Amino acid sequence: MKHATFEKGVVEMGHGAGGRDMADLIRHLFVTAFDNPDLTGEEDQAILSFPAGRMAISTDAFVVSPMFFPGGDIGALAVNGTVNDVAMGGADPVALSASFILEEGLPLADLARVVGSMAQAARTAGVHIVTGDTKVVERGKGDGIFITTTGFGQVREGVSLSARNGRPGDVVLVSGTLGDHGVAVMGRREGFDFDTNIVSDCAALNGLAGALLDAVPQTRLMRDPTRGGLAAVLNEIAEASRVGIAIREDALPIRPGVAGACEILGLDPLYVANEGKLVAVVPPEQAEIALAALRAHPLGREAAIIGELRADPDHFVEMETAFGGRRMVDWIAGEQLPRIC
Amino acid sequence: MKYVDEFRAPDLARALAAQIAAEAQPDREFRLMEFCGGHTHAIFRYGVKDLLPANVRMIHGPGCPVCVLPITRLDMAIALARRPGVILCSYGDMLRVPGSRRQSLLKARAEGADIRMVGSTMDAIRLAEENPEREVVFFAIGFETTTPPTAVAVKAAEAKGLTNFSVFCNHVLTPAAITNILEAPEIRQMEAVEIDGFLGPAHVSVVIGSQPYDYFAEEFAKPVVIAGFEPIDVMQSILMLVRQINEGRAEVENQYTRAVTHTGNAAAKALVAEVFELRRSFEWRGLGRVPYSALRLRDRFAAFDAERRFEMAPGRAVENKACDCPKILRGAAVPTDCKLFGKQCTPQTPLGSCMVSDEGACAAYYKYGRRRAAPNRMEAAE
């Protein structure tokens, strides 16, 4: 088999057994798609020259179901999610590793599509996928495909970001609309026949984060509000920085379609996952500069100032509701499940 | 969101707040019970309490379907789900409610039981059609709002000739519970916890209409205002209750006229009456046994009744003695009065019914209102 095609057929146990089938899969699918000088498919490791300075490393496993959803798929998510975790540390992502657990019976066409979108996402983010691994598990022991990626990035000089850095008076910004990813995925899950035109915001944030750091090197911290949504990130910041946070509901950018879907499903957009948004905390005198920098970037056009940090021994996150009252924004307990009535 | 934002408008809220403050006579208290968890949720989520004068007090009633389901019934569902060959279907927020011995449907699923979250009863019917070799059981809970869809599923299963579909019926009735609260010794004898008026259910009333509440207004001389679930609905209904109380009236008024009629949804009521009949008595978590407060499948549909099909035996579950939920549900205590609140009992580790869902009073206090529950140390710190 000179040119393995991946339009038909399924993943078989042999694709992970170390023999010819596996070599073909690696060479003709992964190496071809990820095409870069550091990835040859012949070595057990990638050897990179790395500039002096601080390195940021982050690893993440991706198990999203369904694997294809409006606006992305598990492949794009696996690249962007890890790129974003590295970028939130003030680092420019350089390289990724990718480890695949494939379930026997997965259509090869699906695998090729996922790998293709990983390659596309890596190109867009400007990172190389330099090493990887493939294992196959028996049918019924996986959910089609699981991907683990590890990202390496070089931390910018003079930048020191940490969830502990927030101080009372600092301003909280969000780079765009909340809840798009969670609603897009939820709408496609089994059990919900729910058609929306909402697409996932899945995107690499290193460009946007870089633009913010260029404009405001004094940025205290950045976080991407993925699982647990904005509420989880704000509570993490409040606890780590030992402050309270006050946000304003009418300042939160939320698409009408997302707000409507959340209304119907009984979800709160504050707790819904995002995959292409960042939360930044900056000193108050830099807030407008930060906002302008975010809005000047294509991924930050709908950025907004949503609140500020304040002294509070309880480290509560509170929201002034658009209605005129106040409420706490607590951690989510367990998974956010739709209400009954 | 069109047709939603109008009911959350801050300027309208301020105007209503000013009117309530002007009309709520300062020399007396207005103790108003919202029966429905949906109202409790709205009151906390939008911060409605901040807009009310101190002497207008909301008492959070038992109208949260997940909260009032007794542990014994949940235990029965978990045991059923563990039987080989069974697929148990349930609405989402039932899944993590803890039963006896720290069990829950989510835990049972993790341990191998086949438990599916469904968004509609027809999803359960579809599962039964797709899995003819399995027993598909729909774990039916909820008030009059969720009962008609269960009836639709039973009728659909009959029409399709499904022999592997059944319903574990736990549907309960709102009017019976309100009567129980008003007849409770705490309410009748203790002046301190008297309820001055009721915010009537929204979605439940869409089905049953405003008529069933006429009885309370008359029998117990309590005003009832049927209220929508949006915060402006709640504010306007509170104003209507304050006016009734001021004027010494005890009538049923309907604020939620855009959805509720006097007689309700005749088709839904007829369907429910065709499929279900009253149980003589049913246990409510927090209220105890309430006569004629729940439904079961009629004999004609016995084949679809999981309780008859599987000979399910109720277990014995014991509630924590220190739990104040029975008092809280009747307005005789507030969540922060309970020794367990926020300590042993939190949304992560709920011990009592009021903590198990966002619609329960304790969970809402914990999630949205702890600042108010705790001394306001924030201002002191600033």
Description:
The complex is a heterodimer of chains A (341) and B (382). Chain A has 341 residues and is α+β, with helices and mostly antiparallel strands. Chain A has helices spanning 20-34, 74-87, 108-125, 180-186, 206-215, 229-241, 256-265, 287-296; strands at 55-62, 68-69, 72-73, 91-103, 128-137, 145-155, 171-174, 221-223, 244-248, 279-282, 304-310, 317-320, 326-328. In chain A, 28% of the residues lie in helices and 22% in strands. Chain A has two domains: 13-155, PurM-like, N-terminal domain (60s Ribosomal Protein L30, Chain: A, 2-Layer Sandwich); 171-328, Alpha-Beta Complex (Phosphoribosyl-aminoimidazole Synthetase, Chain A, domain 2). Chain A has a seven-stranded mixed sheet. In chain A, strands 1-6-4-5 form a four-stranded mixed sheet. In chain A, strands 2-3 form a two-stranded antiparallel ribbon. Chain B is α/β, with parallel strands linked by helices and 382 residues long. Chain B is built from 18 helices and 13 strands. Chain B has helices spanning 10-23, 37-45, 65-68, 71-81, 105-110, 121-130, 147-160, 174-183, 185-189, 203-208, 214-219, 231-246, 266-275, 306-309, 325-329, 361-368, 370-373, 377-381, and strands at 30-36, 56-63, 86-90, 114-117, 135-142, 165-171, 197-200, 224-226, 252-254, 276-278, 281-284, 288-291, 295-297. Chain B has a five-stranded parallel sheet, with helices on both faces. A four-stranded parallel sheet of chain B has the order 4-3-5-6, with helices on both faces. In chain B, helix 1 (10-23) runs parallel beside helix 12 (231-246), helix 6 packs parallel to helix 7 (147-160) and helix 7 (147-160) packs across helix 13. In chain B, 53% of the residues are buried. Chain A binds chain B through residues 191-194, 244, 256, 259-260, 263, 268, 310-314, 316, 318, 320-328, 330, 333-335, 337-341, and chain B through 1, 4, 8, 10, 13-14, 17, 38, 41, 44-51, 65-66, 91-96, 106, 116-119, 123, 141-143, 145-146, 203, 231, 346-348, 357-359, 366-371, 374, 377-378, 381-382.
